[in-house]
Amino acid sequence: MLFSVLTLFKKQVEDWLSHSIMGRAIDAGHFTVDVVDIRDFAINDYGKVDDQIYGGGTGMLMMAEPLYQATTTQIKKHEDLNTEVIFLSPRGETLNQPLVEELATKEHLLLVCGHYEGVDERYLEAVNAREVSLGDFVLTGGELPALALLDSVARRLPGVLPNEEAFQDESLSDGLLAEPQYTRPSSWRGKDVPAVLLSGHAANIEAWRRAKKIETTLRKRPDLAGLKSIDVSDWKDALAVLQDELERPVTSGENTED
Question: What is the rounded CA–CA span in Å between residue 175 and residue 171?
Answer without folding.
Answer: 8
